[in-house]
Amino acid sequence: MLITSEHSGVTLFKMGRSIGPHVPYWVHAFLVDDLLIDTGAVAARREFLDALRGRTVRTVVNTHHHEDHAGNNAALASLCAPVILAHTKAIPWIADPSRMSLRAYQLVVWKRHDGSRARPIGPTVETANHSFEVIFTPGHSFDHISLYEPDRRWLFTGDLFCGRKIKYFRRDEDYGLLLESIEKLADLDIETIFCGLLGVVHNGRKMLADKAAFMSKLRNDARELSASGLSPRSITRRLMGREGAMYYITGGHYAKVNAVKSILAGGPVDQWPV
Length: 274
Ligand SMILES: [Zn+2]
Description:
By secondary structure, the protein is of the alpha/beta class. It has a single domain, classed as Metallo-beta-lactamase, Chain A, CATH 3.60.15. Helix content is 32%, strand content 22%. Strand 1 and strand 2 form a beta hairpin. The longest helix has 24 residues. The radius of gyration is 18 Å and the shape is globular. The two termini are 36 Å apart. The chain binds zinc ion. Zinc ion binds next to loops.
């Protein structure tokens, strides 16, 4: 399923795979002038390419290498041969997605994608009407970048923001680095966040500051409870409640307890590749 909409000259492509009457997880790609920010998932390829017909894409930026953000790079490469830009750490993973060991739920929801050739992104990306600053924002992944357009006070955050609270956490997310990245972005003058999960989010600077405050408090509380002898599972239940459906659907890849474990370990539960 794909839903196209416009916001202040940005075209939003909201896409996800229908499973029965439900779309379990959405992801957005954004088109500004001839710059496409992320390419969505293979599961929505046909609808996405149809929606791009008649539009010009000269440059693609991948905010990170995940299968729902670089999924249609290869299809676009054969359609209109855009220049694909990403952080240097993302490039080998975009070239060879088989390096990612996708779980069953990822293959069902997003499907596996083909590799594509990306080039290292520079400090800025220019389009006809905008200049975007490229900001390295690791945490959700090791290669994550965000794009800031200071004149319009726009911030494109890939999978970095995704709401003011932490409802679940991936096993390969780094809590401390995610918080650092969000604090760094909260210093910017931002009105609109273009979020990979949520689409348009207004009052962006406050939203980021709220998230940073939530994460900071959760970290302090988790450390205190750990010092008093509670296990990560007990801390999680005390601070975040019981695990929800995502825990069971993803086999624990998305789980509340991963946030607590990452806080206490000072790094991701599943270590990043070196
Ligand atoms: Zn991601």
